[in-house]
């Protein structure tokens, strides 16, 4: 029970009388009055006056009595409950006499956290100013409970519904604008003026729709908002400003961090039909990554794409990488800093402790970086020879004048490049995820993957990539099986394990061929390459196949998972190169019969991972309608593309 008093008083007044019993007046001539307070005779009436309390909390540091009081309660019971609550807070060590509001405290708390990273400080300041202060900033800190915080998150979820609708409206408006523009462009001259008016109206509608907030506050962001508020209130609890960390008591809808999913053939087909991604985080298969790298081999930033795809660097880490942190002799890069953008303003920052790491480089990557350094040196010499200024930033990836890139440029450039070859959508950060799938498929231990990516623990890596690794294994199994056409793919039921073992041992033993001549083959699907993809410049095609117990099944395609234009099956031979030679003869015969020219047939078997190299074949060629060198001596020389292994 609290130590204090509950009493009732009102706002009634009475005249002040002088010594003669007459109403006294002020110097201004107004009648003097006094509050009746607890002496009002009407207080016996139930609806007259309000209830107050005051508490005896000992003495303040200055020696005066500490007697907090408060009134305005409609009933005596409510006054007692309020008094007991304040008493309990005081006994728990809370400063109940403080009048600091939540807004004042949160602002002070943020100012006193100098150790925050700049990006975190920016996010926290946004939460405080945009969410916390408007929601409960005027409330006294000591009066805060979980209810106002719960109401704030309810308002966020309600706003999300509006923003999602805004996004749908914006997409419809942009589509209507594109349609109106297309109608205007396709109209024959002289165009109807109304078509231009319709297009302008559609543009105005789209502009208005795009100006509305469309990005919802996702579950992950809500978790971070709660974490920021919880951190602030935990500090207040430790300082005895509040009794409970009210944010910690608030429950949010269950949220599970989205795990990366692989762009399998089925998912790609569904995306092409609906335009919807199966998950916010999607990862290319090794074949898709290889197709991307092949397509950007002549892009100036190819070394960046290569390093991200195979070494898993973050965007900011690539942007900040300096030549001083690249040891080309030892074959190691040291990740010690990153470039982070806050409100599009880039600045240099240190990564998290676990993200500071050394990454060992393979020989191909080392050769690529050495070549890139020569390119950069040549650009510097050319610029200086022209009397122009070279900006010596020291970064590995720079503009032609040596200046730094903005991190967002890498993301924007990446998106434009992969869209050119119609690959399914991924973020640049997902290319980092893809490096994990490449490593896992190549048999790299997950601990090594964790250290390369800079994860805090092996559990983080495992939780993140479990689904991907399962998809990788499934994709590899399906690809290998599908490479060999068979009438019956399943072993008959009822076969004992000993029979199966003997069967497999017999089938997996592939004897050497007695003949050293060309490997014979039979055509299982007649080769028919669509004429619309073959131009004078040529069409680049891929030859891919697999072996089952020595019989090779090889097909030709325009892209990974694309339509197979033809297929052959060879006789039994343990050597993959023999199957590639057979495929080359098959394609050459087709070109000769159809007045086409085969250019640059290249065996890519050497780029396959060691564990699949005995059972898969890969090659690349160009077929064009232009005459061959034998037919026309002056035909310009075709550039040879330096191959990049999709699974190196």
UniProtKB/TrEMBL annotation:
GO terms for molecular function: DNA binding. GO terms for biological process: DNA integration; DNA recombination. Residues 276-478 form the Tyr recombinase domain. InterPro entries: AP2-like_int_N, DNA_brk_join_enz, Integrase-like_cat_sf, Integrase_catalytic, Integrase_recombinase_N, Integrase_SAM-like_N, Tyrosine_recombinase_XerCD. Keywords: DNA integration, DNA recombination, DNA-binding. Pfam families: Arm-DNA-bind_4 (PF14657), Phage_int_SAM_3 (PF14659), Phage_integrase (PF00589). Belongs to the 'phage' integrase family. PANTHER family: INTEGRASE_RECOMBINASE PROTEIN MJ0367-RELATED (PTHR30349:SF41), PHAGE INTEGRASE-RELATED (PTHR30349). This is Site-specific integrase.
């Amino acid at each position: 029970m609290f130590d204090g008093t509950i009493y009732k008083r009102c706002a009634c007044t009475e005249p002040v009388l002088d010594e003669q019993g007459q109403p006294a007046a002020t110097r201004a001539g107004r009648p003097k009055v006094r509050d009746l307070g607890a002496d009002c005779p009407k207080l016996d009436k139930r609806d007259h006056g309000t209830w107050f309390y005051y508490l005896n909390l000992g003495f303040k540091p200055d020696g005066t009595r500490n007697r907090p009081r408060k009134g305005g309660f409609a009933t005596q019971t409510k006054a007692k409950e309020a008094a007991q609550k304040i008493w309990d807070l005081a006994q728990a060590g809370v400063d109940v006499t403080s009048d600091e509001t939540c807004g004042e405290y949160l602002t002070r708390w943020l100012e006193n956290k100098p150790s925050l990273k700049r990006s975190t400080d920016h996010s926290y300041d946004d939460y405080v100013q945009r969410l916390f202060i408007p929601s409960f900033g005027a409330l006294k800190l000591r009066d805060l409970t979980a209810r106002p915080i719960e109401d704030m998150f309810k308002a966020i979820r309600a706003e999300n519904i509006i923003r999602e609708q805004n996004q749908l409206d914006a997409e419809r408006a942009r589509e209507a604008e594109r349609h109106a523009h297309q109608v205007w462009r396709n109209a024959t001259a002289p165009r109807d003026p109304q078509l231009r008016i319709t297009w302008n109206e559609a543009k105005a509608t789209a502009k208005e729709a795009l100006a509305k907030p469309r990005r919802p506050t996702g579950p992950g962001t809500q978790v971070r908002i709660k974490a920021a508020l919880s951190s602030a209130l935990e500090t207040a609890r430790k300082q005895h400003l509040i009794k409970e960390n009210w944010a910690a008591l608030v429950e949010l809808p269950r949220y599970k961090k989205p795990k990366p999913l692989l762009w399998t053939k089925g998912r790609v087909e569904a995306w092409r039909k609906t335009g919807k991604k199966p998950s916010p985080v999607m990862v290319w298969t090794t074949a898709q990554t290889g197709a991307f790298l092949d397509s950007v081999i002549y892009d100036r930033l190819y070394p960046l794409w290569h390093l991200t795809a195979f070494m898993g660097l973050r965007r900011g880490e690539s942007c900040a990488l300096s030549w001083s942190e690249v040891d080309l002799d030892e074959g190691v890069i040291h990740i010690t800093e990153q470039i982070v953008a806050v409100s599009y303003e880039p600045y240099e920052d240190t990564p998290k402790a676990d993200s500071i790491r050394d990454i060992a480089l393979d020989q191909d990557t080392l050769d690529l970086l050495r070549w890139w350094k020569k390119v950069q040196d040549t650009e510097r010499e050319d610029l200086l020879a022209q009397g122009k200024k070279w900006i010596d930033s020291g970064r590995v990836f720079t503009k032609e004048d040596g200046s730094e890139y903005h991190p967002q440029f890498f993301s924007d450039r990446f998106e434009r490049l992969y869209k050119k070859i119609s690959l399914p959508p991924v973020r640049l950060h997902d290319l980092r995820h893809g490096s994990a799938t490449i490593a896992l498929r190549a048999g790299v231990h997950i601990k090594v993957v964790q250290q390369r990516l800079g994860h805090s623990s092996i559990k983080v890596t495992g939780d993140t990539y479990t689904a991907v690794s399962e998809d990788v294994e499934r994709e590899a199994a399906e690809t290998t099986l599908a490479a060999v056409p068979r009438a019956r793919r399943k072993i008959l039921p009822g076969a004992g394990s000993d029979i199966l073992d003997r069967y497999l041992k017999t089938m997996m033993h592939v004897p050497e061929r007695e003949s050293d001549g060309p490997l014979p083959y039979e055509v299982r699907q007649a080769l028919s390459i669509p004429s619309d993809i073959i131009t004078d410049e040529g069409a680049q095609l891929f030859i891919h196949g697999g072996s089952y117990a020595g019989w090779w099944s090889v097909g030709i395609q325009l892209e990974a998972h694309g339509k197979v234009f033809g297929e052959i099956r060879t006789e039994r031979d343990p050597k993959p190169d023999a199957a590639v030679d057979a495929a080359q003869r098959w394609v050459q015969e087709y070109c000769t019969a159809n007045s086409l020219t085969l250019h640059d047939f290249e065996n890519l078997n050497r780029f396959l991972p060691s564990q699949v190299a005995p059972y898969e074949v890969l090659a690349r060629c160009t077929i064009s309608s232009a005459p061959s060198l034998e037919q026309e001596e002056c035909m310009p020389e075709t550039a040879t593309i330096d191959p990049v292994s999709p699974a190196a």
